[in-house]
Design brief:
Layout: E1 3-11, E2 14-23, E3 28-33, H1 42-53, E4 56-66, E5 71-75, H2 77-94, H3 102-106, E6 113-117, H4 122-172, H5 175-191, H6 198-210, H7 215-232, H8 239-259, H9 263-283
Parallel strand pairs: 3-4
Antiparallel strand pairs: 1-2, 2-4, 5-6
Helix pairs in contact: 1-4, 4-7, 4-9, 7-8, 8-9
Amino acid sequence: MTGYGKAMLEIPHKKITVEVKSLNSKQADVSAKLPWIYKEKEIEIRNMVCRRLERGKIDLYINFDTMENEVIPVINKNNVRNYYNQLRELANELGADRKTDLLAIVMRLPETLKAEKAELTEEEWKSVSQLIDEALSLTDAYRLEEGKSLEADLFKSVNKILGLLDSLTDVEGDRISRMREKLIASLKDAVGSENVDMNRFEQELIFYLEKLDINEEKVRLRKHCDYFLETMKGTESNGKMLSFISQEMGREINTIGSKANDASMQKLVVMMKDELERIKEQSLNVL
């Protein structure tokens, strides 16, 4: 399910921004892009995301703008001392001008300064953790709003299938009786009425018409539709369950289509399949 959340916070020396984007996915696929100072908390951050958003292709970004003093240059005293002693010793050997400012020369040499990076404090991490939670809450709220639209669309499609199922019953009418009369007429035309063994014909007809009967499929399809609507009302994550139920609905619709040797019935079956495809597509967006 798609979602988006963004939260910002200013603490001493920093302005921190947390941004979360979520797209549809069957599993939890979390990508976290973090500044170096928060890398040590990456596993904890990923766990926070998975607990809150459960699944989806989720991108989390944390950025901060440094106000001041984030990286402090520090004199590398050991290196400076070694450079200075060596230069002074060399100057004495060469009889160089004693007024030469050796320290100024030393400070231009490599690795006389080192950058000490600030460490993540417990207080800062607590603030960042709350900021991440706020961004995840906004993303979840975004998902809930989208979920309401999905629920209305799914409800509409399932009820359309139920309506088409009622129309199918009306269209079916005395299909079996008409099929029986058609078969008798075709048989009499082929071999003559005097050559038809009606007892044997009735026995064979029973087996043939059983293959065309769709009452069981209609009952199961209605049950699946009712179960789908019932599952949608649940408070737990049920996207995968809805996908499974829609597969079962498709199985019954396909069977009805294969048995319905009638143009009007086939038309209704095609309309059912159209609604079912919409249901399957939307179910992928449900958490």
